[in-house]
Amino acid sequence: MVILPDGTSVSLRRTARARRMTLRVSRRDGTVTLTLPPRLPEAEALAFLEDRRDWLARALQGIEPPRLVAFGAAVPVEGRPLLLTPAPVRAPRIDGETLLLPRARPAAVTAAAFLRTLAQARLAEASDRHARALGRRFMALALRDTRSRWGSCTHEGRLMYSWRLAMAPPEVLDYVAAHEVAHLAHMDHSPAFWGAVGRLFPGYERQRQWLRQHGSSLHAWRFREA
C-alpha cells in the first residue's frame, strides 16, 4: 500500500502475468490498484504514480468517498436513509426514520447482518416470482459482498446477488432479480435475453440507469467491523 501526498491510497499488486505497470480505479468504490511485474523496483512504481497524478485525480472525480458505518450515520435501507441509533433492543428494528440497533454491539456488525437478512428475504421472493413467470427454476440462491457485479447466474441455475441491494430502492433490487432470472433462459445478453427481462420487469431501463448512477454510493459504505 502506498499513500500519495493528497491522501489517496494505492494498492500495489505484483503478478507474474504483468508485463508492464497498469493503474486502475474502481468505479464502484474508488479503490486504486497499481499492478506491477514481479521484479520491478518500487521506486519505479512511485515514479509512475507521480507521472500519472493528474490522470488519477480526474479518474477519482465523482466517485463517492468512503463512509464508515457507525452509530449516528444515516445508512440507506431500501432506498431511504435510516439513522443508526443505539437502543435497548435485542435485534435491529426500523422505527420511523431510524434503524434501532442493540447498543451493546458494534453498529457495523448488526447493520450488516440486518441488511443481509433483508436482502435474503427480498431477493428470494423476487427470484421465485420471476422464475415462475419465466417458467424456469433456479437451484440455489447465495449472497455475497461483490464489487464487480450485482448478481450472477451459473449454467447450473445458481443465483448470486450482492446483499448491498437491500440498500437500494426496492424496484432496483427487483430489476436485478429479473435480470439474473432471465439468464436461466438466456446465458448471454442477446436481444432475446433483454426481451425476457422486459417481460419480467417492464421499464427496466430506469432501474438499470439508477445502478449506473448511484451504485457506487452503496459500495462507499464501509462495514469495517463486519
How would you portray this structure in words?
It is a single chain. The protein contains six helices and 13 strands. α4 packs across α5. 38% of the residues lie in helices and 24% in strands. The strands form four sheets. Strands 1-2-4-3 form a four-stranded mixed sheet, with helices on one face. A four-stranded mixed sheet has the order 6-7-9-8, covered by helices on one side. It has two domains: 2-60, no CATH class; 112-222, Metalloproteases ("zincins"), catalytic domain (Zincin-like). The two termini are 22 Å apart. The protein is an alpha/beta fold and 226 residues long. The protein has helices at residues 42-51, 53-60, 107-134, 170-182, 191-200, 204-219; strands at residues 2-3, 9-14, 22-25, 32-36, 67-68, 74-77, 80-87, 93-95, 98-102, 140-144, 151-153, 158-162, 221-222. A hairpin with a 2-residue loop joins β8 (93-95) and β9 (98-102). The longest helix has 28 residues, at 107-134. It comes from Paracoccus salipaludis. Keywords: Hydrolase, Metalloprotease, Protease. Pfam families: YgjP-like (PF01863).
